[in-house]
Amino acid sequence: MNILDKIIFDKKREVILKKSIIPVSQLEASVLFGKKTISLSQNLRNSNSGIIAEHKRRSPSKAEINYSFTVEEVVKGYESAGACGISVLTDGKYFGGSLDDLLLARASVNIPLLRKEFIVDEYQILEAKAHGADLILLIAAVLTRDEIKSLSEFAKSLGLEVLLEVHNLEELEKSIMPTLDMIGVNNRNLKTFEVSLDFSKELASKIPNDFVKVSESGISSVEAINELKPYGYKGFLIGENFMKTDNAGKAATEFINQL
């Protein structure tokens, strides 16, 4: 069982437990549930930088990245740096995140928020909406075509945008459908954790232009972004690079200014 299989196994159990405690009606009664969402895909189309900055405390590949910031400090720093949107990791066991992080981010900024999570159930999409997310992530590696279809349709029915993450041509081909807004190519192989920008380059021409192209993971330099832009990428998801510094907002500001 690789790390991704482990995460999904744990996630399915977690969702069953949460459903037994917090009913859907409680999520739908949240103050944020009726809030109008902000479009990340539009922001990326109109941006010169295309940066989606991430709040991330740790990961399976890097045990600890940074626990010294508050969510508010990080996301406000990202917003003032000029990020197009912010990705908030909400997985607890493997990434040290929580839905409270999403809630605090929503209370602090007014730019699009992505719930970065291993989504396997509609219930998690309701949670995302109830905690102030504007879009969700679906990971093609862990979902069937039918699951991607039903989950993305459900997200759209709630006014949420959908970023679909792929890692190879097979995942991309099974996933293309009109209920997606953005297609992200993960430069990190989720099974081996090796990182290469070649993944983004190889898949770029296969992604239809109806979708905003996003490159994720392993982007640590302005050169890398300039290398990917000719391939049609409009969005660049960066987490570790900012979070491992003493001041994530300042690091993001300097990075975006260089761009």
TrEMBL record:
EC number: 4.1.1.48
Pathway, per record: Amino-acid biosynthesis; L-tryptophan biosynthesis; L-tryptophan from chorismate: step 4/5
One matching Pfam family: IGPS
Segment forming the signal sequence: none
EC category: lyase
Coiled coil location: none
The Indole-3-glycerol phosphate synthase domain, residue ranges: 4-254
CDD domains on file: IGPS (cd00331)
GO molecular function: indole-3-glycerol-phosphate synthase activity
Catalytic reactions on record: 1-(2-carboxyphenylamino)-1-deoxy-D-ribulose 5-phosphate + H(+) = (1S,2R)-1-C-(indol-3-yl)glycerol 3-phosphate + CO2 + H2O
Family membership: Belongs to the TrpC family.
Protein name (Swiss-Prot/TrEMBL): Indole-3-glycerol phosphate synthase
Gene that this polypeptide is encoded by: trpC
